Amino acid sequence: MRASAATLAALALVAAGCGHSSASKQRTILIAVDAPFSRSPYIGNTIANGGRLASDQLTLRGITTGGATYRVRILQLDNALSPSRAVANVRRALREHATAILTDGTGVDAAWRLADKQHVPVCIAYQGGSKLVNPENRPNVFRIAPTDHGLAFRLAEYLVPKRLKIALLTDDSDYGQAGRDALDDAFRTVPKAVAARITLPASASDLAPQVLEARRSGATALLVWARPAVLGKTIAATRSAGWHVPVYSTPAAEDPVVRQQLADHPSWVDGLTFASGRMTAELGPAPWSTFEASYETAFGATSVGVKSHGRRVIAPPDYAMYSYDFVNLLAAAVQSASGTDPAKVLSALNQVTTRGANGDERGFNERNHEGVVDDDVYFARFRDMVFRPVGDDPLSSTLPEISQVR
Amino acid sequence: MSLAVQVVFTGLSAGGVYGLIAIGHSLIYRLTGIVHFALGDLIGLGAFVTLLVAAGTQPLTQESVSGGRMALAIVAGVLACVLIGAAGYFAVVQPYIGRSAIGWVAATLALGFAIRAVLDAAFSRPAYVFPDPIPFRRVGNDGLVKILGAQIHVRSFAVIGIAILVAAVASWVLQRTWFGRSLRAIADDPDGAAIVGISVERTRALAFGLAGGVAALAVVVAAPGTPFETGSGALLGLKGLVAAVLVRFGGLWAAFAAGLALGVVEAALGTGLLGHLPGLASYRELIPLLVAIVLLAVRPLQLREAVD
Amino acid sequence: MSTPAAAAVRTGVALRETLASARESWTDTATAGGAVAVAAALAPFVLGGLIATDTLASGAYLALAATGLGLCVGLAGVPSLAQGAFVGTGAFAAAHVLRHTQLPAELCALIGAIAAAGLGTAAGFAVRSLDAVRVAVGTWLLSWLLALALGALPWLSGGAQGLVVPTRRLFGFSPTPLVHYELAVILTGLCALALVALRRGPFGLDLAAAARHRGAAAALGVPMERLRVGAFAASAFVGGLAGGFAVQLDIVADPTAYGPLLSFELLVAVLVGGAAAALGPSAGVVVLGLIALAARALGGLAGVSGSRFQPMLEALLLLAVLTTGGNAFVPAAIASARRLRPERRRQSRPAGAPARRRRELLRADELSKRFGTVTAVDGVSLELMPRTITALVGPNGSGKTTVLRLLAGAQPPDHGRITLGSHELTAASAAERVQIGLVRTLQTRAYFGELTVLQHALVGTNRTRRHGGAVRALVSTPLYRAENRLAEAQTFAALETVGLAADADRPASELTGAGRQRLMIAAALATNPSVFLLDEPSAGAAPEDLERLTAILRRLKADGLAVLLVEHNLSLVRAVADETLELELGRVVRRETNGRL
């Protein structure tokens, strides 16, 4: 009796051991999201939510490759907009054997090399500075987000034929300074189109003096590359001075703060035109709508805080789409590399393509690490607190309107 | 010409707020010998309590909040400043006053950073918008008047007016009322004042609270002009401190005037009014700070000898 | 013997002496310190699983910067809020040098430290004579200035991405976090040792005196302004060194990391750990780390995604610690350890003949001083001769104390001239006058906190030392130690004159008021003066104290000093004075010799 009990026990142990060593091994694809969760939660949460939506869907489906099943896990690390924290976060991600690092862009200049030593890919999902991505020198740095270069050149392309005298207004933040460089590049060949270049002090409470300067320079249009709060102040200063000059801007215009600031003057927001990465694809709006619906189910709609014709206005999750797409790309790369071996995943990342959330094909190759091409930039104009693609740009005129009221 | 007028009015409007905060700093220093390093963060707290009562942590816009609720929110914000200012006195200043300067320095700093951290945790958006408590847009052209070619916000006049009013009231209270006299007595001779029957601790705490409330009032009036961040309070507190230092913590009116001057100089440096030197605008906040430090050093106090 | 061999022999003898004295002064505290150092060095291997090595290394550099701040706050008693700015200066200076030159990494960090020391010297000079509150405000503004400058000037800070720092081998080692950690521990240990050495030397005594009673220290000629500048420069150097190395660990010079928050954290570390102890700041940094861990745990318990609430929890915990007055864990620990094993007492009294200064004549001609509309002193002339006691008497408000203060250099006269022998004193500062041989005592029972009687008196000897500088104290050269012995001998002689030699090791706070008055006389005597000014030494004294005072004054006279006595007590004046001057309304109305009026 005792002998058989012992044998049974031994058999049970062996069976358990066999169970672990069978083909149903559970492994993890760890993606570290290094973003400013404490200082800019809006950006941090957008990137993380997009990543989480993708990771949840992938884990549900399960990724089976190379004899193992993988689930996808997101690790959130706060960098508080500090490059040294970003470096510490990357070190931690590498210690925990992350397969990839998703970041807003803070500290990439310093941290990419650490990741490169272990061949771990780093993907920027927000900042657009041109020096950040360089496939030759930084083989492990990728970006899925509109670039400053793309935005600036498209803006120049759009505005110059209108024969406007443009005043370039940039703020003194890093975002504004990077924009200033990109705009200088873009308008280099058409110096006559630029009426003035003015720096907006971000901490000033009233930008009337700077707007007055722009007016006196003879400008017939304003191109504002600044953080959302400063953009709002500029528009307020312009319109309250009675100057109804057309104002153009960057994706910062989509930020809810702009509309909140101008909530008691909805007419001031009308006509504000901005450049951004397009949300829908050539295939049509259906894939985007599906993505938007699942995002809202998971995380709720982001309320802007204003009303349009009595209905609540929401902000569509366009930047979340970028991190979502990267996670899917990474999963495809792991699939193609039959595992999470970093060097193999990195080289696979340069080859695979996936269908993005909005239906576009997303992919990188050895010479191009930008996931959003410059041509994908479109223009939208505000009316009644919601924005629609403009009609006087070839790409934008083909895009449908996306509902922003609930 | 119109640019100069614009700069001056923009500067005065910002300077009015700095001036009131400078008054707060100066008052507290002259009455207790304390420099309140957390005054700026306290003001930020008041502003965000107002926001909380008015709209929760959701986005706030003019049409979404009724006038009555806004008024209640403002009262709540100022009250919060007064109460936490007074409580702050008991918590961080009183254990160390008169004994260890380093003690209250560290403690007030800790209070400031703690307030900032709580605000950061509770309010996650990068900037918040305050509606006008007073319907300025009904005046003039949508809240603006034209003076000498420059468009001036009516709100600026209100800020300067309220600042002057508050300075005058504070000055009158210090000179004429019993409360003011007891405050000055405590400043001169705490032990003597205690003997005479003045409750030193409570009066000081009240002074702390009121100084905070005074500055909070100014910010609540001025905040609607611009998006407010969780760090704005600390920066305003710093500028108020700079203004107070520039007049060596002098009288109320001196501190107020210094704040106005600081606002105008900052605005002027930010526009290129004082010349188009490349990058001068970046230095607009640094130069006043540097001047304040130099001023602090260049006219040093003689080390006072022991009483003999 | 040929010269090189002689030099070698002398060096060998000196080394043996050093080792012997080191063994002699080895205390239990030193053993404890050594144990802590070993534990710290082994920490990464023990804690490696729990806390990442790069976090430990960052913390160790923080401890180094905090120990540097301990020099200012602990030793000099100055509330400096600019240490974060000094660390940042070192970091960015080192980063710029690393990027633009091929200099070795250690040298770049050193250059960073020197740049920070430059800024520290400027800051110290700016606040050299300000009171504590203004120092706090001034250094706080400096901290903000650097933070705002880094934010506003991209050429300085490299923009929001910061300045990326190339990695280079550190002292021949590959710059891994572990190497950085050990380097930081070694540097912190050296800095702590330096703190201990300085505290015991003249530099430390002077600073302690100045921190506890400025007036009395000034009267003894302590050069407070120079000391403050020195303290700032030294703490900035250490902070800059920490920054210069830490930036290489971080790989990037981060413009957001060196602002007022860092200055605040360093100050808190020094306070919580105890500013008085050498390893206190490091203990404070450990406490900060524990608070961070506690915040993370609390956040985990509450189920919130830590990162958003962690700063808030940390700040609140910090506030709680400070408001409950919890400052000084290390001193408390040291005090409890002391109760178990008392400090070893010194074995013998050093012998030595202190040199005497030449006795000279002090002459004051037509001194006048007005305060606003009040004329305090009006054309007073007097002569103080060696081996004479001159008394100044008169009713309150007659100007006697003002005359004394004019002679001592506490205030400049409006008119008149003061000479001591051939030295022109009229424009000399109080510190300079002490060096030339004129010293005063104060009217109040000023004393320097918990210093011992011997240490009090030693403060006086520092003025006459030539080899007592901070650097020599650090390295403990033979000349320094020889002078130490001489200074102690001089001090004991002074203590004997006032009758306090038996109480040499007692804390001054245990003395009576009259005892402290005698202590100040001893300290003044230890400056080896030729002219001695006393301001109402008998105030509040009991009859037996008066007897002792009389004896002391007679001994001073016998020693050849020229003594000026400002007094109310006419019986004392009658007993000792050789010449008496009566003042009224600022003028000399009567002059008597041999104490008879």
Shape of chain A: globular
Q: Any low-confidence stretches of chain A, pLDDT <50, length ≥5?
A: 1-23
The whole-number mean of residue pLDDT values of chain B reads: 79
Q: Span between N and C termini of chain A?
A: 72 Å
How would you characterize the overall build of this protein?
- The complex is a heterotrimer of chains A (406), B (308) and C (597).
- Chain A is 40% helix and 22% strand.
- Chain A folds into two domains: 26-146 and 319-373, 3-Layer(aba) Sandwich (Rossmann fold); 149-285 and 301-318 and 377-398, Response regulator (Rossmann fold, 3-Layer(aba) Sandwich).
- In chain A, strand 2 (63-65) and strand 3 form a beta hairpin.
- Chain A has helices at residues 2-20, 41-61, 83-95, 108-117, 148-159, 174-186, 208-216, 228-240, 256-261, 266-269, 286-299, 318-337, 342-349; strands spanning 26-35, 63-65, 68-78, 100-103, 122-124, 141-143, 166-171, 194-200, 221-225, 247-249, 273-277, 302-308, 311-315, 353-355, 361-363, 377-383, 386-389.
- In chain A, the strands form four sheets. In chain A, strands 8-7-9-10-11-16-17 form a seven-stranded mixed beta sheet, with helices on both faces. A six-stranded mixed beta sheet of chain A has the order 2-3-1-4-5-6, with helices on both faces.
- Chain A is globular and about 70 Å long.
- With 308 residues, chain B is mainly α.
- Chain B has a domain at 24-234.
- Helix content of chain B is 68%, strand content 3%.
- A two-stranded antiparallel ribbon of chain B has the order 1-2.
- In chain B, helix 1 (2-32) runs parallel beside helix 5 and helix 1 packs antiparallel against helix 10.
- Mean pLDDT of chain B is 79; it is low at 301-308.
- Chain C has three domains: 28-258, no CATH class; 357-437 and 529-597, P-loop containing nucleotide triphosphate hydrolases (Rossmann fold, 3-Layer(aba) Sandwich), CATH 3.40.50; 448-526, no CATH class.
- In chain C, the strands form three sheets. Chain C has a six-stranded mixed beta sheet with strand order 8-9-10-5-11-12, sandwiched between helices. A four-stranded antiparallel beta sheet of chain C has the order 4-3-6-7, with helices on one face.
- The longest helix of chain C has 27 residues, at 224-250.
- The radius of gyration of chain C is 28 Å and the shape is elongated.
- Chains B and C meet through helix 4, helix 9 and helix 11 of B and helix 6, helix 10, helix 12 and helix 14 of C.
